[in-house]
Write a structure and sequence with these properties.
Number of strands of chain A: 13
Number of helices of chain B: 8
Radius of gyration of chain B: 22 Å
CATH superfamily of the largest domain in chain B: HUPs
Oligomer: heterodimer
Strand content of chain B: 25-35%
Number of helices of chain A: 6
Largest sheet of chain B: 7 strands, parallel
Helix content of chain B: 25-40%
Shape of chain A: globular
Strand order of the largest sheet of chain A: 9-8-7-10-6-1-4-5-11
Largest interface: A-B, 74 and 90 residues
CATH superfamily of chain A: HUPs
Structural class of chain A: alpha/beta
Number of strands of chain B: 18
């Protein structure tokens, strides 16, 4: 069995997110990290590989910083990695999915795992779009996954309101992975050393047989309207506690 | 191109997801005719129910649609959309229709998908606005391909239009579904565990997040909740850690609450949490990070280490109850 895990380098939440005088996002300020959701997908892939003797390929299309994320995946235990450099300023979820699907096609994974969404743009589309392009079945928001003997996946999916549903599907398939279904491991020193000897293949966009291009473009960025600011309470803990309780009681009348 | 905006009505096990009626508000923003599309098995009653709030209803019933599956819904919707060419198809950015179905519809209709929109409009083409980079920016996005547009809408971003009091026309269409082409086999449903004190009914909620630090510290939060006459709730990380049952989770994958008072303790305010509590009457946030997004939603904010302030706060509340 071969498992592929999609990984995205996302803009760190602590990065300065500002617009320039031309209204463009100041991408030079961006720092990147591995998308948190993808970490759970990698862990799940590696656990399944240990259980079912599978190989795990971690794949990323994005900025150069994605190489660091892929190395982390290798250090955690992935078999090999594929990196396709793509500038973030170009493209949309459809193009990302097209690039990833083109890179996956030659390796024909039985199972593709991805995080449920990205922390920075949060479109939650790429996993399902990759499935559509590969002709695979997809299910999102997986909170547990079991593999049956006959290649049937038993997937527990999270729904709104704390409800769950079980779905069975036949591989090849794409699943998007919700946080909390496992505890991602920290790469061991041995894993980090071993990762240096593993294959990290770099595929140029021009070498891929792409079946489509971007379908959505961002035409403008703006700052969200300022909300009315919270009244901030200051002082020592006792003073704050006293002030808060009297505000809630006398002004808001909720106590 | 028609002016029809198809709004896919979300329902599960006979229960209407009333948030999906907000899609009719989005259709109005698009100057369109709000057409409710109801898919399922024997959904005529549901179709009648939503007909008071929209301009027309298309009811698509087939026994193969009894449970939601992306393949089944796509089989029902895609050929009809290709034939009738609605201007746009909208769904909630929900777990089923938003995440599983919308990308499939867009892909099979050969168009882009703009997801989790907080606003939609026509410019030179279909435009959706969405929050990006953890809500620090709004991206205005335009769909490049002409034809039927597909978008998902954030819960709470649009307002349900007032009921007309008149039932709109319900068009019941016979549809053929190839059940063998449905690749999901849907199994058991698990309803949320019932926990003591339903948080959706609570008047006062004391919610704990990652900033609580340890499971032991939850006792202090519990003590405050008891003193204040409130119900304990949690953000997702605490539930993921197994510190509190899932039934206490507030947010997009938990419950939506609207208490008179919501105390957010050590909760950073990720959008997934905020959508579940932002309509509370009074929100108090205590967090040690002054830049935590929760302060954008709070009426009162305290930048402090939770463990330093929770003791004095509990004492103060207990003194009040005397």
């Amino acid at each position: 069995m071969r498992i592929a895990v999609l990984m995205k380098a996302v803009v760190e939440p602590e990065s300065r997110i500002e617009l320039g005088t031309d209204g463009e996002v100041q991408r030079a300020n961006f720092r990147y990290e591995l998308n948190e959701y993808d970490l759970y997908a990698v862990e799940e892939g590696i656990r399944m590989a240990e259980l079912y003797e599978a190989e795990v390929t971690v794949v990323s299309a994005g900025p150069e910083e994605a190489v660091q994320s892929l190395r982390k995946g290798l250090a955690m235990g992935a078999t090999d990695a594929i990196f396709i450099p793509v500038e973030e300023s170009m493209g949309d979820a459809f193009l990302s999915a097209t690039v990833l699907a083109a890179a996956l096609k030659p390796i024909q994974p039985d199972l593709v795992l991805a995080g449920v969404e990205s922390n920075d743009l949060g479109g939650s589309q790429v996993g399902v779009l990759v499935a559509e392009q590969l002709g695979y079945v997809a299910a999102t928001m997986a909170i547990s996954v079991q593999v049956g003997n006959d290649g049937v996946l038993n997937v527990r999916r999270e729904l709104e309101g704390g409800n769950f549903v079980e779905v069975n599907l036949q591989m090849p398939a794409v699943l998007t992975i919700q946080t909390g279904l496992n505890e991602p491991r920290y790469p061991s020193l041995k894993g980090i050393m071993a990762a240096k000897r593993k294959d990290l293949v770099r595929l140029e966009l021009s070498s891929l047989d792409l079946s489509g291009s971007q379908l959505v473009e961002t035409i403008e960025y703006s700052y969200p309207p300022q909300r009315e600011r919270a009244q901030m309470l200051e002082g020592n803990s006792e003073a704050i506690a006293g002030e808060l309780v009297s505000l809630l009681r006398e002004k808001e009348k909720v106590l | 191109m028609s002016r029809e905006v198809w709004c896919i009505v979300e329902h599960r096990r006979g229960q209407l997801d009333t948030d999906s009626l907000q899609l009719f508000g989005a259709a109005r923003r698009l100057d369109g005719e709000a057409v409710a599309v109801v898919c399922g098995d024997e959904v005529e009653e549901l179709a009648e129910r939503v007909s008071g709030q929209c301009d027309r209803v298309i009811s698509l019933s087939n026994s193969a649609l009894a449970s939601f599956t992306p393949d089944g819904y796509a089989q029902a919707i895609v050929p009809l959309a290709l034939e009738r060419q609605p201007a746009a198809i909208l769904a909630l950015h929900s777990h089923f229709l938003g995440r599983d179905l919308a990308p499939v519809l867009a892909s099979r209709l050969g168009t882009g998908l703009i997801s989790d929109c907080i606003d939609v409009e026509w410019r030179t083409g279909f435009v959706g606005k969405r929050l990006v980079y953890r809500r620090k920016l709004i991206a205005t996005q335009r769909s490049i391909e002409p034809g039927v547009q597909v978008a998902t809408c954030q819960r709470g971003a649009f307002v349900v239009p007032e009921s007309t009091g008149l039932g709109a026309e319900v068009e019941v269409l016979p549809i053929e579904i190839d059940a063998a082409a449905i690749r999901w086999e849907v199994g058991a449903f698990d309803e949320a565990e019932v926990v003591a004190g339903d948080i959706t009914e609570a008047d006062v909620i004391v919610a704990a997040g990652r900033g609580v630090g340890s499971k032991e510290n939850l006792d202090l939060v519990q003590r405050l909740a008891k003193a204040i006459g409130g119900t304990l709730a949690a953000s997702r990380p605490l539930v993921d850690h197994g510190w509190l049952p899932r039934g206490l989770q507030v947010g997009s994958s938990g419950k939506t609450v609207r208490p008179r008072l919501y105390l957010a303790l050590g909760i950073s305010g990720a959008i997934q949490h905020v959508v579940g509590m932002r309509d509370s009457d009074v929100i108090v946030a205590i967090n040690k990070d002054p830049r935590a997004p929760i302060f954008e939603y709070a009426d009162y904010g305290v930048v402090a280490d939770l463990m330093e302030i929770i003791g004095p706060l509990t004492d103060e509340v207990e003194a009040l109850q005397g």
